[in-house]
Design brief:
Number of strands: 0
Order of helices and strands: HHHHHHHHHHHHHHH
Helix content: over 70%
Distance between the termini: 55 Å
Radius of gyration: 23 Å
Number of helices: 15
Strand content: under 5%
Length: 333
């Protein structure tokens, strides 16, 4: 140990609070460039998609697409016009489909089925990009969420009681009379979204560094480790699973991408985790959004957890069969 290090150690022993501030400062400073990189990457995806969807809504393209999906939605117990809610959820966050849902005359039973579908498929283009960045196939993740949403809706249509009451939300749809007003509305929404992304992503990256520095992340991982075994996931996934459940895929993307790039989690473990959180993430905030409008929490929570667990164990079986096939081929050679 050099003279400088010895002097610093002696100084911090006398002034322990200085050491605490120094560790916090270092954690925050190191988080800033990482968060800036993630924020720019997210905005390059989010802003063009949100503008494109606003234009599609304005010119009636999404409504046109919804008319062709009508028969499929009637098969799962939903009126054909509800397809526009589902299509909007694929492109945007949950606030948009909830707002549209309020303008359609729906029973609570229909809203519950739609809510479950939207919870699985919302913001798919952006969130699937995050999952691709962490090592999973974009196509597999996209199709997994799409298939699971319809499977969940079909099962829920079989299980739900016929009468669950009326909708508790009724609003008027926002109609833009000209393109300029629509673009102004989009710009205002985009500005608020940018601010939210900057604050949340930066805050999460700082928090992650602080948790690492003070060994708190290890405690969180150990706390959720027994649950990971049931889910079919590695203990190394504990913290990332926790982040995905609290903040969702978009806002938690910085932490997930960093851990994948730094190889703090293996490619296989990251892929298995993605199978789970593709179906079940943001368990707290997103669920409460629908509970606030009267949707029963049970019907939109446990189906997602069950299907997410099933998806991981099926993926594990596929991994096992691929490995077994490779081993057999090597033995034959």
């Amino acid at each position: 140990m050099g003279c400088r290090e010895t002097a610093l150690l002696a100084f911090y022993k006398v002034h322990p609070m200085k050491l605490l501030y120094q560790r916090l400062y270092t954690s925050v400073r190191l988080a800033l460039p990482k968060s800036a990189k993630t924020i720019l990457w997210l905005l390059k995806i989010i802003l063009p998609i949100s503008l494109a969807v606003s234009l599609m809504h304005y010119f009636g393209l999404i409504a046109l697409m919804a008319t062709y999906l009508g028969p499929l939605f009637q098969f799962i117990g939903l009126p054909g016009e509800s397809a526009i809610v589902f299509l909007t959820s694929i492109f945007l966050s949950l606030y948009a489909p909830i707002a549209i849902m309020a303008t359609i005359p729906l029973e609570m039973r229909e809203i519950t089925i739609l809510a479950l579908m939207c919870l699985i498929t919302h913001n798919m283009f952006i969130e699937t990009s995050v999952q691709k960045k962490t090592g999973s196939s974009y196509t597999v993740m996209f199709l997994l969420r799409l298939f699971t949403s319809f499977l969940a809706a079909w099962l829920l249509n079989l299980m739900l009681p016929e009468d669950m009451g009326k909708s508790q939300i009724v609003e008027k749809a926002v109609i833009h009379t000209d393109l300029t007003s629509m673009l102004i509305h989009w710009a205002k929404s985009a500005g608020g979204l940018i601010l939210k992304i900057v604050l949340i992503v930066t805050g999460l990256m700082m928090l992650q560094n602080i948790l690492k520095e003070f060994k708190i992340m290890e405690m969180i991982s150990k706390t959720f480790a027994p649950m990971m075994k049931i889910f079919g996931l590695s203990e190394n996934c504990s913290f990332l699973w926790f982040v995905a459940q609290i903040t969702g895929l978009t806002y938690g993307s910085g932490i997930m991408i960093e851990q994948a790039e730094n190889k703090e989690i293996s490619k296989k473990d990251a892929d298995l985790l993605n199978h789970h959180i593709a179906i079940n993430h943001s368990l707290l905030e997103d669920t409460l959004l629908f509970v606030a409008i009267g949707v029963p929490a049970f019907w939109i929570t446990f189906p997602r957890i069950f299907l997410a667990i099933a998806a991981v164990w099926i993926a594990r079986f596929i991994y096992f069969m691929i490995r077994k096939k490779k081993t057999t081929q090597n033995l034959q050679i």
